[in-house]
Amino acid sequence: MKLTAYSNYALRSLQLAALRSPDLVCVDDVVRVHGLARPHIVKIVHELGQAGIVETRRGRGGGFTLARPAADIVIGDVIRLTEGRLELVECFNPDRNTCPLIGICKLSRALREATAAFMAVLDGLTLADIASNRDELLSRIAPLQDGILSPMRRTR
Questions:
Q1: pTM of the shown model
Q2: Which CATH code fits 5-145?
């Protein structure tokens, strides 16, 4: 399975927000730390805001912050938002399927089970889980941050 860059960037943005919580994170913070394109992050933060995962503030001093505790944000839900339906093969989409083996193909069944197992793992993972090694994450991004995270609280 492979997730899109969009999902990857959304998770990186959320992880940084979890590390900064409850403080605001600027789009430029995400861009600088992860070396990503600003328009992508703007679009992602907007979608995460529309979904109620982050709260956004516009204008000078604006940014985004988590709309609820990181422990309440399920990674599987974020992936469903950013990926839509996971269609590994064409037969997963009845509107576009051209395979004559639909309904009898054991490969299709196995791929459905694999997709369900993949999502089950992500459904058992929260944003708090992927930000739990806070000190390691912060030390890794410290050379990239250019001071953006310096007034961070050191709570555990």
A1: 0.82
A2: 1.10.10.10
In the chain, where the domains are located: 5-145
* Residues 47-54: contacts with CB under 8 Å, at least 24 apart: 47/10, 47/81, 47/82, 48/10, 48/13, 48/14, 48/78, 48/81, 51/81, 53/14, 53/78, 53/81, 54/14, 54/17
pLDDT in tens, 121-132: 999 999 999 999
Q: What is the DSSP string of 10-41?
A: HHHHHHHHHHHTTS-B-HHHHHHHHT--HHHH
Per residue in 99-112, pLDDT (tens digit) is 787 778 888 888 88
